[in-house]
User: Fold this.
Amino acid sequence: MRRTLLFALFVISVMLLCGASSGVPNDYATSTSGGAPKPTTPTPPDQLGIQAPTDIDMTASSQAPSTRERSQNFMMADQSSAYAAAPQVAMGATSNKAVYQMILPPGGTASNSLYVSYAPRTVASCNLYANLPLWMNTKGRGNIWFYEWYPNGMLDTQYAGNVYYPGWYKRWFFADTPGWHILQYYCGGWSNYAYIYVNGPGGYWVNPYPSSYSSPNPYPYSQGQVTYTFPSTGHTYYSYKSSTTYG
Assistant:
């Protein structure tokens, strides 16, 4: 009996250790500052049954924003550009619906759309240090706030700027940390979530904005204030991002 009990305790311990090392946090941070709307807690990919796509775009490592795009938080685009890289099966019915599923915020509605790599894709994977284009289809106008949850649950909130017309816009994602990243934005309403899995060695974080000549810019000009919130400590740290960087 005692031997059985000890074995059961051992199995439970192993399960707890595996869960702790899976890289998926129990809670995602939602606190913001600087006037950013407070998001709701996103659902972890494992609870949604989302798996990292195996069709990693190996050309993503060579993709990079142009010099002009690096100086902007986002840029105007159009629907044809957003769909240009999509395979033909993505235009209509597709056998790989997992990468095109629309994960909505609680309540089941999203007035804006967010796609990764190309429309209508919402789940993607890439290698560490890769750049992936993000496509935003906004239905309204106003300030754009962009949210990125890191694998450890940290929330990076960025003021991206103001749009005067609804339509298509483009932004870039930089794969700076291995693991799952969850993306969302707000512009007069919330967008759906986009999930990106970054392949690479874990256990560390690299600075995605290694600019030696960056200078702070106060909100609401340029990229504005960036907040980093750590769920484990409850502390929020503030920094500024240069208008010459991207991410």
In short: Residues 25-240 form one domain. DSSP finds four helices and eleven strands in the chain. Helices lie at 2-20, 45-48, 67-70, 79-83.
